[in-house]
Amino acid sequence: MVGLAFMSPALVVLIGFFFLPVVLTAVFAFTNMSTSTGISGGSYVVTGNLLTALKENGVPVEIADALSKASFVVDPEGIAKARDAGTDPAFLAEIEQQLGGRTFTDERLFERELKTLQHRPRSIRDLKLAVDQFELSILNSRFTSESAARQAIATFLPSAPADTVDQIVEASYTGWTWTTANFKQLFSTSDTWRIVLNTVFYVAVTLSFTVFVGLFLAVTTFYLPAGAASAFSMLWLLPRITPIVLYAVMWKWFTWEGGFLYTAADALGLPAFNYMKGSVPTAWTIVIMVNGFIGAAFAMILFSSALKAIPVQQLWASEVDGASRWQQIRYIILPHLRWPILFVTSYQTLSLLSSYQEIWLTTNGGPGRTTTVWALESFNTALNSYTGNLQYGLGAAMALILVIVGVSLSIIYLRLFRFDELLGRPKIEF
């Protein structure tokens, strides 16, 4: 019980900051939540954009056009509505007497009939105001229940097939619903596979840069004098400890028009342009270096710590045997760094899969969307859409796929790299 009490804060943090977000992401992934649907219940509205979408999804053009047309019905409801709007009672009485029960499919025809009445208003504006009170249209009308929407649609489409009416009613709902359409959309669009390829390329190249540069820095500082090694290490830690926004601004100053690299290239007669966004190869180079230096600083710290754990007697003995620096690295240092290298590889893979801040603050996925990766696309879809309609459900579906990929890679790394041996009991007891 005492042990459980000590573990309870960690369990609360684990559940609140890891399991709960994952569960909520999984829930939202199976909805069509967006800023247009909201997160609460909605209503049923037939709009012009909806009718256009219905035509594209197979609804006959004549049925969609019928919903877009307005009719003018002289009935008690219209009379009461006109009376509430302040229409002249004598004019209303004349309308009810001479035109009651009639339906007009054309607004001009209805106006022409009203103009023949003796008590018609002399102002065109007042006449049109009276006409509007008798208008009956489903377009942009809001219905709070499915039955009311279905009844209204059936009134305008008395001969429409039942499945077509069902399709229109379902499409007109403005609230969120449970759906698997997010995953169908992701696996059916060409943009998805382009983003997947971008992500694989970004993770593979940046990971290679991180491991090799971090290993090179650690080994280099290992052979330097203590003072020089400390100064060198501090300089390479700057990308890791610098606030990300300031770090991105520094790279922009370095690569944008008028920056250091631009000015130097211009002075040397080389092509000078915005290297961060001016071309795809330079944009990818900047993205990989921006993230690679941060990861290399992290890898250098781990590798340097592991190097200090190597018994110095092994290195002395190898020097006595005439081993060169390269032979020391190959036969002594690298075998000792096996576990740190595997850990950095697995950790940085998962970190790069979920990272987007550096790309967002530098290239923002450009030029075009050539440097857009999965995590950045998920963020933009759910929280930063240029169209203004934030698609929470689709963004959550992308995030859920990322979680599944991350967990799968973790299991593969645990089995492939045999981390159980690292965590297991030592085979030699001292």
Kindly describe this structure.
This protein has 430 residues and is mainly alpha-helical. It has 3 domains: 2-66 and 140-184, no CATH class; 70-136; 188-423, MetI-like fold, CATH 1.10.3720. The protein is 69% helix and 3% strand. Helix 1 (2-29) packs across helix 21 and helix 12 packs across helix 15. The longest helix has 34 residues, at 190-223. It is elongated.
Quick summary:
With 430 residues, the protein is mostly helical. It has helices spanning 2-29, 48-56, 61-68, 76-84, 89-99, 107-115, 124-133, 146-156, 162-172, 181-188, 190-223, 226-241, 244-255, 260-267, 280-308, 312-320, 325-336, 338-354, 357-361, 374-383, 392-416, 419-423; strands at 44-45, 71-73, 103-104, 135-136, 142-143. It contains 22 helices and five strands.
Helix content: 55-70%
Largest sheet, described in full? 3 strands, antiparallel
Total number of helical segments?
22
The tally of strands reads 5
Structural class based on helices, strands and sheet pairing: mainly alpha
- For CATH, the homologous superfamily of the largest domain is named as MetI-like
H/E element order: HEHHEHHEHHEEHHHHHHHHHHHHHHH
Strand percent estimate? under 5%
Low-confidence stretches: none
- Overall mean pLDDT: 86
Strand order in the largest sheet: 3-2-4
Look at the structure and give the CATH class of the largest domain: Mainly Alpha
CATH topology-level name of the largest domain: MetI-like fold
Total discrete domains: 3
Based on the structure given, which CATH architecture of the largest domain is correct?
A: Orthogonal Bundle
Rg = 34 Å
Distance between the termini: 33 Å
Shape: elongated
Membrane topology: Multi-pass membrane protein
InterPro entries: ABC_transporter_permease, MetI-like, MetI-like_sf
Main location: membrane
Transmembrane segments: 200-224, 236-254, 283-310, 392-417
